[in-house]
C-alpha cells in the first residue's frame, strides 16, 4: 500500500496498463501526471507545444498501435477539442486515454468549466474517480475500454482528486505489444466521403456504450435510508457521504453516458432524489433530461467554487460542523512575482510609460497586481498578441497610449506564434515583449521548445 496523489495514481494506472507513450502540455492541476509517467520504466514522454498538438501526437501513436496517455487541464481541453471531436469518429488503434483535470474554485485558472460537457458533446466516455485508488484503477482499465469500443476515453479529475494523496495498491506492468498497423483510409482519413459512414459507426457505438453503462463496474450505490437519495460523482461523493451519512448515494464512476435505467430504479427507491455537483449543472440537467424528478435543496447550494461537507450539510438544512474562525489580525498574503524576478523591471517600466498592456497566461500575469499594477487584460493562451493587434486596429489613426503585448516563452510557443504570424500577415503594428526565462515557470519549471531539454532530459 502506498500514498499517491490522484495525478501520480493516473500515471501509475497508465504504466500498469502497458501504455507506451505520454504526451501533454503542463497545466495545473494536471501537470504532475506526465512528470510521474515520464519516470516510469519502458515509456516515452514529452511536453508538446500545446494541448492540440499533444492530442494529435497521441492519435498518431494510437493509430500506429501504441497505448497512449495525454493529459491537460480543463482549459486545455478547449485547445484540444478540434482533434478530439474527430477522433470520436475515427476511433483508435491502441488505447487512447485523455486526462481532463478541472479546477473548481479556480485555484490556478482563468475560468471554472466542467469537462463533462465535452464528453457529452463529443460522445467520448468519461470516467470520474473519487480518490487515488479509483484514479489508478479507472485509468488502467480505460485503455482496454478504449480498444473495446474503438474510442478515446476521458479520465476526469478535479484539483481535489489530482492533488490529494490517498492509499493505493500499485500493481505490475502489463506487457502490451503494439497493435499491428494496416492502412485503412476509411477509418483514418476524415474527409466527408469517409466521415459520413464513420458517423454511423459512432452512433452504433453510442448505443453500445449506453447498454454497457447500465451494469458497468464504475457506478456504485451506497445504501442508507430511503428518505434522501443523492446522485454525485468524483470528489463530491466524499463530501456527500461525510455530510449525509444516512442518505442513499448513487456514485457515478462513469459520467457519460449516464445509466438511464439504473438511475431511474434508484430514484424510485427513495422519497426524494437530489443531485450534488460542483460549479456546474451538467449532472442536474442530464438526470432531469432522462425524465427523472430532481428535488430542490432546502437551502441554496453554492453555484461556484469547490464544495465541502459543511456546504453540503447547510444546503440540506443541517448545521455545519463546528470550526474555529480565522483570527482577524492575520495579514493577507496576495501572490506576487518572486523576489529578484527580472519581469518586475519590465512591468515597472511599462507602468512608467502608462502603456496599455495586454497580458497572457503565466506567472507574469501577477504584473496586474499592486505594487506593479501594469497589466490591463488577460484572457487565454496567446491572447496578448492578438488583443494588442485588436487595440491597435480600434485606435488606428488616433493619438493613443502605447500598446504592448506581454507573453512568456512557453505561452509564445503554445499559441503566441500563430497570433504573431496573423498580426504580421495583416501588416499590424504594435510591440510584443516575450518574457523569456527558458522555462514554464508557473506550473513548476517544465521545459518548452526554447529551453533546449525535453521532459526526459534529451537535448
Summarize the topology.
Elements: E1 2-5, H1 6-16, E2 21-24, H2 31-38, E3 44-47, H3 51-63, E4 68-73, H4 74-90, E5 96-102, H5 116-122, E6 126-127, H6 132-149, E7 153-158, H7 159-163, E8 165-168, H8 185-188, H9 192-213, E9 220-222, E10 228-233, H10 235-243, E11 248-252, E12 254-256, H11 260-268, E13 272-275, H12 282-289, H13 309-315, H14 343-352, E14 356-358, H15 383-394, E15 403-408, H16 409-425, E16 431-435
Parallel strand pairs: 2-3, 2-4, 4-5, 5-7, 6-7, 10-11, 10-13, 14-15, 15-16
Antiparallel strand pairs: 1-8, 6-12, 9-11
Helix pairs in contact: 1-2, 1-6, 3-4, 10-13, 15-16
How does this model look, in words?
The chain is of the alpha/beta class and 459 residues long. It has 3 domains: 2-213, Thiamin diphosphate (ThDP)-binding fold, Pyr/PP domains (Rossmann fold); 220-315, Rossmann fold (3-Layer(aba) Sandwich); 343-435, Thiamin diphosphate (ThDP)-binding fold, Pyr/PP domains (Rossmann fold), CATH 3.40.50.970. Helices cover 39% and strands 16% of the residues. The chain has 16 helices and 16 strands. The chain has helices spanning 6-16, 31-38, 51-63, 74-90, 116-122, 132-149, 159-163, 185-188, 192-213, 235-243, 260-268, 282-289, 309-315, 343-352, 383-394, 409-425, and strands spanning 2-5, 21-24, 44-47, 68-73, 96-102, 126-127, 153-158, 165-168, 220-222, 228-233, 248-252, 254-256, 272-275, 356-358, 403-408, 431-435. The chain has a 7-stranded mixed sheet, with helices on both faces. It has a 4-stranded mixed sheet with strand order 9-11-10-13, with helices on both faces. Helix 15 (383-394) links the parallel strand 14 and strand 15 (403-408). Helix 1 packs across helix 6, helix 3 (51-63) packs parallel to helix 4 and helix 10 (235-243) crosses helix 13 (309-315). The radius of gyration is 24 Å and the shape is globular. The protein starts with a strand and ends in a 24-residue tail after the last strand. The mean pLDDT is 96.
Amino acid at each position: 500500500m502506498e500514498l499517491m496523489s490522484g495525478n501520480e495514481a493516473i500515471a501509475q494506472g497508465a504504466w500498469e496498463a502497458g501504455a507506451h507513450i505520454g504526451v501533454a502540455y503542463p497545466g495545473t492541476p494536471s501537470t504532475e501526471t506526465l512528470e510521474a509517467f515520464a519516470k516510469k520504466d519502458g515509456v516515452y514522454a514529452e511536453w508538446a507545444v500545446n494541448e492540440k498538438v499533444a492530442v494529435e501526437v497521441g492519435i498518431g501513436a494510437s493509430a500506429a498501435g501504441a497505448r497512449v496517455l495525454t493529459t491537460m487541464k480543463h482549459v486545455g481541453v478547449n485547445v484540444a477539442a478540434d482533434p478530439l471531436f474527430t477522433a470520436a469518429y475515427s476511433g483508435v488503434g491502441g488505447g487512447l486515454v485523455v486526462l481532463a483535470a478541472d479546477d473548481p474554485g479556480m485555484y490556478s485558472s482563468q475560468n471554472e468549466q466542467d469537462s463533462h460537457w465535452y464528453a457529452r458533446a463529443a460522445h467520448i466516455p468519461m470516467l470520474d474517480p473519487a480518490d487515488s485508488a479509483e484514479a489508478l484503477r479507472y485509468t488502467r482499465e480505460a485503455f482496454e475500454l478504449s480498444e473495446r469500443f474503438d474510442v478515446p476515453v476521458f479520465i476526469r479529475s478535479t484539483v481535489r482528486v489530482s492533488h490529494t494523496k490517498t492509499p493505493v495498491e500499485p500493481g505490475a506492468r502489463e506487457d502490451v505489444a503494439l497493435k499491428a498497423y494496416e492502412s485503412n483510409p476509411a477509418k483514418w482519413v476524415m474527409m466527408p466521403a469517409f466521415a459520413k459512414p464513420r458517423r454511423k459507426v459512432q452512433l452504433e457505438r453510442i448505443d453500445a456504450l449506453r447498454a454497457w453503462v447500465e451494469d458497468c463496474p464504475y457506478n456504485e450505490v451506497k445504501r442508507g435510508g430511503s428518505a434522501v437519495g443523492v446522485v454525485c460523482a468524483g470528489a463530491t461523493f466524499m463530501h456527500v457521504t461525510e455530510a449525509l451519512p444516512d442518505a442513499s448515494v448513487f456514485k457515478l464512476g462513469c459520467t457519460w453516458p449516464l445509466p438511464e435505467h439504473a438511475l431511474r430504479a434508484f430514484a424510485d427507491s427513495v422519497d426524494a432524489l437530489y443531485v450534488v455537483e460542483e460549479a456546474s449543472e451538467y449532472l442536474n440537467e442530464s438526470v432531469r433530461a432522462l425524465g427523472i424528478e430532481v428535488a430542490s435543496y432546502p437551502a441554496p447550494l453554492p453555484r461556484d467554487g469547490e464544495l465541502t461537507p459543511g456546504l453540503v450539510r447547510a444546503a440540506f438544512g443541517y448545521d455545519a460542523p463546528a470550526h474555529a474562525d480565522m483570527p482577524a489580525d492575520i495579514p493577507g498574503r496576495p501572490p506576487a512575482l518572486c523576489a529578484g524576478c527580472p519581469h518586475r523591471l519590465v512591468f515597472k517600466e511599462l507602468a512608467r510609460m502608462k502603456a496599455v498592456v495586454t497580458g497572457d497566461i503565466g506567472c507574469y500575469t501577477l504584473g496586474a497586481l499592486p505594487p506593479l499594477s501594469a497589466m490591463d487584460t488577460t484572457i487565454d493562451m496567446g491572447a496578448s498578441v492578438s488583443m494588442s493587434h485588436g487595440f491597435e486596429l480600434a485606435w488606428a489613426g488616433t493619438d493613443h497610449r502605447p500598446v504592448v503585448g506581454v507573453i512568456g516563452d512557453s505561452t509564445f510557443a503554445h499559441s503566441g506564434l500563430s497570433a504573431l504570424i496573423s498580426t504580421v500577415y495583416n501588416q499590424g503594428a504594435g510591440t510584443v515583449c516575450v518574457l523569456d526565462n527558458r522555462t514554464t515557470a508557473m506550473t513548476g519549471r517544465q521545459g518548452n521548445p526554447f529551453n533546449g531539454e525535453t521532459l526526459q532530459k534529451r537535448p
